């Protein structure tokens, strides 16, 4: 700034200040000193009024007394925004008699990622919500191990909070956590005046759940909000240091995944008992003390007049600060000259006019410099945007393209962006189109879609069955799978199963208008669906026309590993979109008069018990199977069994040549009869009456890390 003024005064663009100019300048002017500045918006500065602050504390006291709020049951929540780069404080020049840190009036900051945080006067915090700017959830967000249990990743079109997100946070996070941690019957929630906190639904839920809300006066959160007073400042400095460290390591682009990696450790360093309690104390809420806030109010929007030094002229002569003062100063000069006064008044008036003119000229120089900086920055952004190369259609695997469509905005190509073979997320490209070329563009988009889908049917109609008792199934479908299927223009009919066997009932009565039935579950739901289709009177048509697939949400997910080579939800959803119908042999099992079919495996003994007898241990994940096997072995359990096996050295044609026949009550082919039939002569009866375990399979992989039947292409697998 000073250098710009020097160049304007000397009319020399190359003129520069000396390295010690700032130090010498402050030494020459005893009325000024150097201090670190602090940013503050104009609206906040206006609200630093003792009357406003005192009225706020009167309202707080009244609410505490009326509702019997315990001092540990005062909560504060707010959103804070993070940009990809954070500004640090800098040294500025200010008056010597100023004790507090000076603050600079700004217009506000642009937010990229929004965090909802909440703390209590007891010194504790609850899990945050992270709101990212995105059209859909991306699987990569959930791969970050630093994201802890209870954290919620939400999305919005601009990365800011919405009425729906605010209400969801209140219901899903604040109510259960704060209720469990509260001392008294009611909780006091301190919040700002954001529109998402003032909806009728938000207010009604608070009243129903003994939550007393108090909204701070506008633009006072820097004084009255504990999060702003004691936490958010250190939090952003902590995050900024981690960003600096990442950039030092060579990462010059901080994206959403980087943010999700950096924010948890930054938060952990700041959200501690001491900082949170200091925030409530500094905001005057615990202990309740308005003087803690009032003593901070020293900010003035205008620059104070420098103190008079001995020998100076009367304070009557002041430099004009606006056109009205300048007008009066000129009028006074005119009157003095007319009277031809011999006093120093005319000279003083002229000096002040000269100073006012200098100030105006200096301001003009500074404004011109600011305009130049803004124009240069805008031009830089335009050039950056122009040279930014988005991945074009030729760089995307055709398999990953979901849809190409012409809209008013131009050509939109929706595709899966694969970062690794086991991980993918939804993305889109947009290209403007000359209106005169719309017809050609439509033809091009149709051709691209045809090549992208090949022999697969586009725009599938799918019946979605979700097992709500399967951990994470609802969230995985709605946040990951559903956006992918919808982007591929699939028509979805979604239904939740209510009890064991419900999926079988649905499949048995299902209208055959669907291209496929997709089970959001483990392998149990597809098993029910196959048996439901097999019990239909038109079983042959049903099994031949309606495909069965799955979104992996269970422990083993064997069907997904065999079909997709992965248990990643996004990979599975893409495979369903691009998949073609594939015939699959089913095994028939007869027990008494009950017939069932199996698509995966059939077991007797140890392996069966390791699954069925550990249902109550699903919380252990895959480890429950290992526990079940060892527990059964330790008990030395044996199982009665008469086993006959036919081994086919070259059995490919024989198995695939089976045809459907109706046998008893089962509308499926029973090529070798049932257990009631006599064992055929070409079958070998095993010389054992008891076995520890028998296991036969129709698919190679029975779990992620269990490939029992590696040679299944040459033989039906069985394991004894």
Automatic annotation (TrEMBL):
Keywords per UniProt: Coiled coil
Record bears the keyword Coiled coil: yes
GO molecular function: lipid kinase activity; nucleic acid binding; phosphotransferase activity, alcohol group as acceptor
InterPro entries from the UniProt entry: ATP-NAD_kinase_N, DDE_SF_endonuclease_dom, Diacylglycerol_kinase_cat_dom, DUF7493, Lipid_Phosphate_FormReg, NAD/diacylglycerol_kinase_sf, RNaseH_sf
Gene Ontology CC, one term: membrane
SMART domains: DAGKc (SM00046)
Residue ranges annotated for the DAGKc domain, each copy included: 457-593
Coiled coil: 350-384
Secretion signal, residue range per the UniProt entry: none
Highest taxon listed in the record's lineage: Eukaryota
GO aspect biological process, one term: sphingosine biosynthetic process
Protein name: DDE-domain-containing protein
